Amino acid sequence: MAHGDWFWHELSTSDAGAAKAFYGEMFGWGWDDMDMGEIGMYSVIQHGGQPHGGVMTMPAEQRGMGVPPHWMNYIQVDDVDASAAKAKSLGGVVHAEPFDIPEVGRMSVIQDPQGAVFSIMKPAS
User: Fold this and answer.
1) What are 51-64's pLDDT values in tens digits?
2) 41 with 35: CB under 8 angstroms?
3) Exposure pattern of 36-75 as b/e (b: 16+ CB <10 Å)?
4) Among the residues of 7-59, which ranges form H helices?
5) What does pTM read for this prediction?
């Protein structure tokens, strides 16, 4: 994977079990469930023997704010901090300043000037 490649897709939803049933039946996806402690269960999408993304129950805080279920797409970057700064300079909004996820990588959540939201990430490996 290289700078600018799409590499992960994540569904945050109000009912992860129902979403897994729907997408599993629709596309033949399998699941690798991982207990993430406080965050809850995270189900890695398996398709063709490869991980492609994940499904999780939306945090209560987001549900309370009226955030609807949504997909988040991740774009790989060489430098999260520099890319977030560049997004700001181009009129984007950084909703989550760069932060680390242990053993996963460094990421940031950005909104483009037209309103679309996406994440950038430099994977740990």
Assistant:
1) 999 999 998 898 99
2) yes
3) eeeeeebbbbbeeeeeebbbbbbeeeeeeeeeebeeeebb
4) 16-27
5) 0.84
